[in-house]
Amino acid sequence: MTPELNNLVGKVQQNCHVSDAFYAGNYTMCIFLLKMREFYRWEQRIPLTEALPRKDVGDWLVAREQIWDEIETEAFAELPFNDQLHDPFDADGINRHLLEQGYVYSGGMGLYSKPHFFLGDLERQDQIDDITILVSGREHARDLVAPPSMYRDNTVFVRKESLRRFLWERIEDWRFAKDHAERPIGRALDTYGKDRDLELVLDEMTDNETESLILHEVGESRAGRILGNQWEQMLASFPRTKLEFMARAARDLLADTLVTLPTLVEQDNAAALHVYFANFSGMRKLLAPGLDTAYRQWMTSGDKASLSEQILRGQDHWQSTSLSVLDTFTNHGPAAREQIEETLESAAI
């Protein structure tokens, strides 16, 4: 890296620390410690299959919390690049010149309105309709939470290093589960071949799931065109509530029934379908139990007909449900919280 790029990486990481300092308290102690362990692994570049030194992790965690205490109230730093100072959320302005040098940057808001920043190697740049796809590899700066994919301003960011780590965590959970033979992630691993080197399988799975994430984010874009900007205003009116999680799940279901799932079925991408349903949980599973049932029927019979039927049914259902919810919010505002929750609860299919 050039000195200018090294300086940029340092400033991005500084903003990551500020974000973590302010938002780390949002997590339960168990989740926090798990995330910190993996963050330590990333910082120290320790392979996923290698055990972590417990004492070193503990010492690092104490030191990191001390740093957070000192910077918790700091403002995000402007990012110096190409002889300009950029707002940390001006990803387009920074990438206009950064992509040419083989790197990609993103700054945006995630769950709980937490700011996420990262800078990594650019592996690939594509265009789907009017959507720009930016796929990154090794990450040089990131915060505690590393979403494998994000959609912002007609740009999809897919972070393969974070995705690989996410998939490894799912595999680890499966390996130590008593009922692991029944779990979809095990079915996914079977499609890549038994008794193969796990690192190689993980690489192939990461490549395959990169395409699935792109499909999901394209679906998010199409859902966004249907629902408009007021959907985000509605979510912002109910932060950290059951309604927010249900509404996010409804939009995910709309995106996935529009694009992700029908494409995976059409491609006969069994491995990706297994991984999708390995992560089909929480509010999505509560709102769409029929999808999970149809998937399990396919696992038993090998016939995707019921799954395809449920996906097609979901396209109209989640679009009409989401628009109905949005209409209620438009007419009644935050006072309609209970009514919207009831609408979403009764929409389960």
Total domains, how many? 2
Give the low-pLDDT segments.
none
- Over the alpha carbons, how many angstroms does the gyration radius reach? 21 Å
What is the percentage of strand-forming residues? 5-15%
Distance between the termini: 52 Å
Q: How would you sum up the major sheet?
A: 5 strands, mixed
Q: How would you sum up the global shape? A: globular
- In DSSP terms (H or I, runs of 4 or more residues), the helix count works out at 14
Could you estimate the helical fraction of the residues in percent? 55-70%
Q: Structural class from helices and strands?
A: alpha+beta
State the total count of DSSP E strands.
7
- Compressed to H and E, one letter per element, the order equals HHHEEHEEEEEHHHHHHHHHH
Report the average pLDDT across residues. Answer: 93
Strand order of the largest sheet: 3-4-5-7-6
Helices and strands in order, then pairings?
Layout: H1 3-23, H2 29-44, H3 54-71, E1 79-81, E2 84-86, H4 91-98, E3 103-109, E4 115-128, E5 131-142, E6 149-152, E7 155-159, H5 160-175, H6 184-191, H7 198-227, H8 230-237, H9 242-267, H10 270-278, H11 282-287, H12 289-301, H13 305-332, H14 337-346
Parallel strand pairs: 5-7
Antiparallel strand pairs: 1-2, 3-4, 4-5, 6-7
Helix pairs in contact: 1-3, 5-7, 6-10, 7-9, 7-10, 9-13, 9-14, 12-13, 13-14
